[in-house]
Automatic annotation (TrEMBL):
Transmembrane segments: 6-25, 67-88, 108-130, 161-183, 215-233
Annotated ranges, domain 4Fe-4S ferredoxin-type: 281-308, 339-370
PANTHER family found in the cross-reference section: IRON-SULFUR-BINDING OXIDOREDUCTASE FADF-RELATED (PTHR43255:SF1), IRON-SULFUR-BINDING OXIDOREDUCTASE FADF-RELATED-RELATED (PTHR43255)
Entry protein name: Fe-S oxidoreductase
GO molecular function: 4 iron, 4 sulfur cluster binding; metal ion binding; oxidoreductase activity
Record bears the keyword Membrane: yes
Pfam families xref list: CCG, Fer4_8
Organism in which the protein naturally occurs: hydrothermal vent metagenome
Record key words, sorted: 4Fe-4S, Iron, Iron-sulfur, Membrane, Metal-binding, Oxidoreductase, Transmembrane, Transmembrane helix
InterPro entries: 4Fe4S_Fe-S-bd, 4Fe4S_Fe_S_CS, Cys_rich_dom, HdrC_iron-sulfur_subunit, Helical_ferredxn, NarG-like_sf
Gene Ontology CC annotations of this record: plasma membrane
Length: 668
């Protein structure tokens, strides 16, 4: 029980704390509201159950780093419970005789739970501080040559220390206060840890024990009053903002993708994101949701091979800019992003592998910022790597990213007796061949293998032949949205002209575009990847497979656009496993955690001059499994892994093959 004077002082301090908190919290929302594409807050709040579920279960923390995630979840659960505990402590301080179900089993469980949890949270936070300040754990830092601002360099460690100390002081003081109360009241079986600690107070008078309770209460509750206004400035704003991040309505089929720009809208003067204020509000919310855990860079192919890109640096640089210059931003400052969030080299180093989006426990999408910034570079600034001039020109004139004549698109099918839609549109399914499948000498063999499988299975398929154009993925990921949409619209027109309903393709990039991005532009088709299609043919006994006589050992490399973008992991593996005698071995990084080959996001068409080569890192991992065959299901992965095998001089021992080729070799 507080004295009357203490009660009055506490109320005054609560009012002061709330006034300052209102200012810091509203500053945060004013910053977010300055972005483009307003967050529909009403609809967002309707998704409250979703945000609450994520907050209570902390499920997103376990996607990667499950052990650390569990300790982090303990801290978050501890925080939640402590909101209740603090409320009861305040009531008990004001209402004479109040205690939470003092003589019932509920009260017993409550006190026991709080007793144990206090110690766990204290130790958990202590561990986090040791990890950051003593062990200097590599996962918690962003290494050069990544650009981090001076604000970040100074701020991150300081804020971690402030927050860690706050939690330890608060929880510790509350626990010590409970031990004084236990000593004063002569023991409590429901608080065994506080009871052990209370032995320290043997010999103190009842008055001294009461004084100890009061001092502990003021330290515990006073720390909260001091910390609440600081919340929006600390990384612990994520406690409130991360659930919002998941609640924002999202009609995209998969995360890590951008919405099509509307080129018909003549009022739009800025395409893409060149300044901070051009970012969508959701992107600004990302900065406040960030835990600064660096999970997103754990498997980022660019970061892990020593490039200038770290997805977490994008969010953290953004966040610390707001901490230092938030008021200028609210007042209308125009803030060019060039050199602030990331360097130009970093911007073009991204392979769009989507790992950062998959791994982020708070739903951030650094990849989306990168794609938006590339749009500004290409469409507003004409400032992009020189290699891309040729790529864009080829896409515009040849409808493929290389210099191949579009009239040669059907050459791969010579002698295979395959009809085009133009010759006979009455096929049951369209085989979308893709640029690599049409022109790349190595992948032409995959197109031929897949076509032969379909013929053996009696599938009545067609191709578009010379009427097919690049699906638009490369142009879109490189920021040339206008070119991307032109290609997409022309393809949709062609597909609709022939009344195409179902499409199968061997290219995950074509697959993802056709499946997830064409519908937004009016192209609704049923799309299958050839790995799904082949699996289906096996399941339906339309093809039968013979044993592998040479006991090959195979490892399968997950394409990012098949795996993380579309969750196709099982079907290619099932096809390999359907062949008796083949042994499938997994790489350390596979499935959701698969490491990119380095070719996505248009990287296929750019030089790689910084750090290690991504394809070599991945190929080494594949070779380390002891496999004699690296299986893939993507033309870009095929190229990158084949190059890797050659560079590592392993082409005598290891082959790179597509799933279709492996299956064709084993068809009876
Ligand atoms: S999409 Fe991949 S390459 Fe790009 S920033 Fe994210 S993890 Fe790195
Ligand atoms: S963006 Fe997500 S994964 Fe990356 S540091 Fe922030 S919270 Fe962690």
């Amino acid at each position: 029980m507080l004295t009357l004077a203490e009660k009055i002082i506490f109320i005054v301090l609560v009012i002061v704390s709330l006034i300052i908190s209102y200012k810091t919290f509203s500053r945060m929302f004013k910053i977010i509201n300055r972005g483009k594409d307003p967050i529909p807050w009403k609809e967002t709040l309707k998704n409250f159950p979703k945000g609450l579920k994520i907050f209570l279960t902390q499920q997103t923390l376990f996607t990667t780093r499950p052990v650390i995630g569990f300790i982090h979840a303990l801290v978050a659960w501890g925080f939640t419970i402590y909101v209740l505990v603090n409320s009861f402590d305040v009531i008990a301080a004001y209402v004479p005789g109040f205690a939470f179900f003092p003589n019932s089993v509920i009260g017993f469980i409550y006190r026991l739970f709080v007793d144990i949890f206090s110690v766990l949270v204290f130790l958990g936070v202590f561990y986090f501080l040791i990890r950051r300040f003593i062990f200097n754990e590599e996962k918690l830092i962003i290494k050069p040559p990544v650009h981090v601002t001076d604000d970040v360099k100074k701020g991150v460690r300081r804020d971690s220390l402030i927050v860690g100390l706050f939690i330890m002081i608060h929880v510790g003081a509350r626990f010590v206060g409970a031990s004084f109360a236990v000593a004063h009241n002569g023991g409590d079986a429901a608080q065994p840890l506080a009871a052990i600690f209370s032995s320290l107070w043997q010999g103190l008078s009842p008055e001294q024990l009461v004084l100890g309770e009061h001092i502990s209460w003021w330290i515990a509750l006073g720390a909260i009053l001091a910390f609440v206004p600081y919340f929006p400035l600390s990384k612990h704003a994520h406690l409130f903002m991360a659930p919002f991040n998941y609640m924002v309505p999202d009609d995209r089929p998969n995360k890590g993708t951008i919405k099509p720009l509307n080129f018909e809208d003549e009022s739009i003067e800025q395409f893409g994101v060149g300044n901070m204020e051009h970012l969508p509000q959701k992107s600004l919310l990302d900065a406040y949701s960030c835990i600064m855990c660096n999970r997103c860079q754990d498997n980022c192919p660019a970061y892990q091979t020593g490039k200038e890109l770290s997805p977490s640096a994008i969010e953290i640089n953004k966040r610390y800019y707001f901490n230092s210059h938030g008021q200028e931003f609210i007042d209308g400052a125009e803030v060019p992003l060039k050199g602030l969030l990331l360097t130009d080299n970093a911007l073009w180093a991204c392979t769009s592998c989507n790992f950062c989006v998959y791994a982020c426990p708070v739903g951030n999408e650094p990849l989306v910022d990168i794609l938006h910034m590339r749009q500004d570079k290409v469409m507003m600034e004409s400032d992009f790597p020189s290699e891309l001039i040729t790529t864009f020109k080829n896409l515009e004139t040849n409808f493929n990213p290389w210099a191949f004549n579009s009239q040669d698109r059907k050459n791969w099918a010579e002698g295979l007796d395959i009809k085009t839609m133009n010759e006979d549109p009455n096929g049951e399914i369209l085989f979308w061949v893709g640029c690599a499948g049409s022109f790349d000498q190595r992948y032409q063999k995959v197109s031929q293998a897949f076509a032969k499988i379909m013929q053996k299975a009696g599938i009545n398929f067609r191709i578009l032949g010379n009427e097919e154009k690049c699906n638009g993925d490369t142009a879109r990921r490189l920021g040339n949205e206008y070119l991307a949409q032109t290609l997409m619209m022309e393809n949709i027109e062609m597909l609709n002209k022939y009344g195409v309903k179902e499409i199968v393709t061997a290219c995950p990039h074509c697959f993802n575009s056709l499946k997830n991005e064409y519908p937004k532009l009016g192209g609704e088709f049923k799309i299958l990847h050839h790995s799904e299609f082949i699996d289906k043919l096996i399941q339906e006994n339309k093809i039968s497979l013979k044993n592998d006589e040479n006991s090959h050992k195979i490892t399968y490399h997950d394409s990012c656009y098949l795996g993380r973008y579309n969750s196709i992991y099982d079907q290619p593996r099932a096809s390999i496993k359907a062949i008796d005698g083949l042994e499938l071995v997994e790489m350390d990084r596979s499935l959701n955690n698969g490491f990119c080959c380095g070719a996505g996001g248009g990287r296929m068409f750019m030089e790689e001059t910084e750090g290690e080569r991504i394809n070599e890192v991945r190929t080494k991992e594949a070779i380390e499994t002891g496999a004699d065959t690296i299986a893939s299901a993507c033309p870009f992965c095929m190229t990158m892994l084949s190059d890797g095998v050659k560079t590592l001089e392993k082409n005598e021992e290891v082959e790179v093959k597509d799933i279709a080729e492996i299956i064709l070799e084993h068809i009876q």
